[in-house]
């Protein structure tokens, strides 16, 4: 099962370090790219994964921004 399939919760993201969040975000971006490519080739049967992936990346970006503001 890929990471992108499950919804990430903000409470879980707040417990992680900025470095871990950035690694997770890069992994999700790669999966989103792969899913977009599969969707273009009409081989992606679960098209909702694209929306879930975008939202998960946005959640991680929000968590990173909050952590940076707290550290400053």
How is this fold's topology laid out?
Layout: H1 10-14, H2 18-40, H3 48-71
Helix pairs in contact: 2-3
Quick overview:
α2 packs antiparallel against α3. The mean pLDDT is 92.
Descriptive overview:
By secondary structure, this protein is an all-alpha fold. The protein has one domain (3-71). The chain has 3 helices and no strands. The radius of gyration is 13 Å and the shape is elongated. The N and C termini lie far apart (37 Å). The mean pLDDT is 92.
Which short descriptors sum up this protein?
72 residues, 3 helices, elongated
Describe the main β-sheet briefly. none
- Roughly how much helix do the residues carry, as a percent range? over 70%
- When the domains are counted, the total is 1
Rg computed from alpha carbons, rounded to a whole number of angstroms: 13 Å
Provide a count of the helices: 3
Question: Which residues sit in consecutive blocks of at least 5 with pLDDT less than 50?
Answer: none
Report strand %: under 5%
Mean pLDDT: 92
**End-to-end distance, in Å?**
37 Å
SSE string, helices as H and strands as E: HHH
What general form does the structure show?
elongated
Structural class: mainly alpha
Number of separate strands:
0
């Amino acid at each position: 099962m890929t990471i992108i399939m499950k919804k990430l919760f903000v409470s879980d993201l707040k417990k992680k370090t900025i470095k871990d969040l950035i690694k997770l975000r890069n992994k999700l971006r790669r999966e989103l790219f792969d899913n977009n490519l599969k969707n273009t080739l009409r081989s992606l049967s679960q098209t909702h994964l694209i929306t879930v992936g975008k939202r998960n990346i946005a959640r991680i970006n929000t968590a990173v921004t909050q952590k940076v503001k707290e550290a400053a």
